[in-house]
Design brief:
- The structure is a single chain.
- The chain has a domain at about 25-155 and about 195-245: Undecaprenyl pyrophosphate synthetase.
- The chain has ten helices and eight strands.
- It has helices at about 5, 15-20, 40-45, 50-70, 90-115, 130-140, 160-170, 180-185, 235-245, 255-260; strands at about 30-35, 75-80, 115-120, 150-155, 200, 220-225, 250, 255.
- The longest helix has 24 residues, at about 90-115.
């Protein structure tokens, strides 16, 4: 994407225009991962049921997905539902799954229009049949898209992913002496994708919550106090600008963003 294409989406004179003009498009993070946190707190502040926070978080997903695609990011991964989230009240889990299905139905044309390819990472086989049907449909319909890859992490856990990768190595008969970091990465849910350059967490919490534990080894972490339902295009642009001001370090070696965001 170019600055012109991003500006075409921003109303003239909007404050986001100034942010967009500061972005160095040759130093974008190749992969942005987001821990979407704060839905419950957002609802509590308004004395609303927790599910209202999840409902209002859908607009944040829309803005984030389209902004990342228009920026030209190669991969966006959103943490939607963890393996631990099954412990939540059954009514809340049902609402989350209903909202997921509704999002896919309503947004599939937007994904196609923006040339976005949709993919699920996590133990999707444990989800209900109706949810899997919606997910499979979205994956199939966007399979020929060649723009940004949009991963949604569902029934996902970083430790579970590593365990699944180890099990796959055993099932494929890979000998221990043949297994190095490169080959192990190829057994993960994100095989073939660049590791996240930028990890964003909303709501001000300072933890990674079992998310992409292998992949975020050298990711730049950006934490915002903004609660997820309030997260919009400008917040993503601010995160990218903050990322571009940092020096990437890998074991003490400084790397330019241009060298790593390929």
């Amino acid at each position: 994407m170019s600055l012109e294409k991003l500006l075409a989406w921003i109303p003239p004179g909007h404050p986001d225009e100034a942010l967009a003009r500061q972005v160095a498009f040759d130093r974008l993070p190749a992969h942005i991962a987001v821990i979407m946190d704060g839905n419950g707190r957002w609802a509590a502040q308004r004395r609303l049921p927790r599910v209202e926070g999840h409902r209002n978080g859908i607009q944040a997903v829309r803005d984030t997905v389209e902004t990342a695609a228009r920026l030209g990011c190669r991969v966006l991964t959103l943490y939607a539902f963890s393996v631990e989230n099954w412990k939540r009240p059954a009514a809340e889990v049902r609402t989350l799954m209903t909202l997921l299905k509704r999002y896919l139905r309503l947004e599939i044309e937007t994904l196609l229009r923006n040339d976005i390819r949709f993919r699920v990472i996590g133990r999707a086989e444990d989800l209900s049949a109706d949810v899997r049907r919606e997910l499979d449909s979205a994956v199939a319909r966007t399979a020929d898209s060649h723009g940004m890859l949009f991963n949604i992490a569902l029934n996902y856990g970083g430790r579970a992913e590593i365990v699944d990768a180890a099990r796959r190595a055993v099932s494929e008969g890979i000998a221990a002496e043949e297994l190095d970091e490169r080959r192990f990465a190829g057994l993960l849910y994100t095989a073939g994708q660049p590791d996240p350059d930028l990890l964003i967490r909303t709501s001000g919490e300072m933890r990674v919550s079992n998310f992409l534990l292998w992949q975020i080894a050298y990711a730049e972490i950006y934490v915002t106090e903004t609660l997820w339902p309030d997260f919009r295009r400008r917040h993503l642009l601010e995160a990218v600008l903050a990322y571009q001001k940092r020096e990437r370090r890998y074991g003490g070696i400084t790397s330019s963003h241009a060298a790593v965001a390929t």
